[in-house]
Amino acid sequence: MVTALQDNERKDWDTYFMDIAYMVSTRSRCPRRHVGAVLVQGKKLLGTAYNGAPMGVADCSEAGCMIVEELEVNVVGEEEQMIKKQRCIRTIHAEQNLLLFTDRIDREGSTVYVTDQPCWTCANMLANSGVKEIVYHRGYPKDSEKVVALMRQRGIVFRCLDRYEPPAQAGMSVIS
To answer: What cofactors does the UniProt entry give for this protein (predicted)?
Structure first.
């Protein structure tokens, strides 16, 4: 006999959609980081995406990562510090794929759930996409301050689900 779930056993909407984002991330073949993103309007799921190479092109697990190093000046008080960043350029980020495969009209006023805090490039794209809220779980300290400032300036709600626990099936270690 099947019994109905009690309300206290039912997942809240943030957990439900973040669970979906994490399960979507399992499609990624990136050896450095699996990222999943979902687009939600109200409580309706409108699209999913994960990070990976363009369709029909060898991915990082087949052809290796295409790592580039970037230098960025970070000003702390009156002191300038050079920060070295490494990024894989073979992979299209989950947020970018989500924007490529969803319609602008669906994004207007919607929420994006993404497993990881968006990088600077993805944050810029999301800031111009029509979304009103971005919810993420894992931080991305390389771009965090700039991204938070951008979201504040654009009036986009930017929330971290820091007490969230991903589904066990979606687990992977993350390489910074």
So the answer is: Zn(2+)
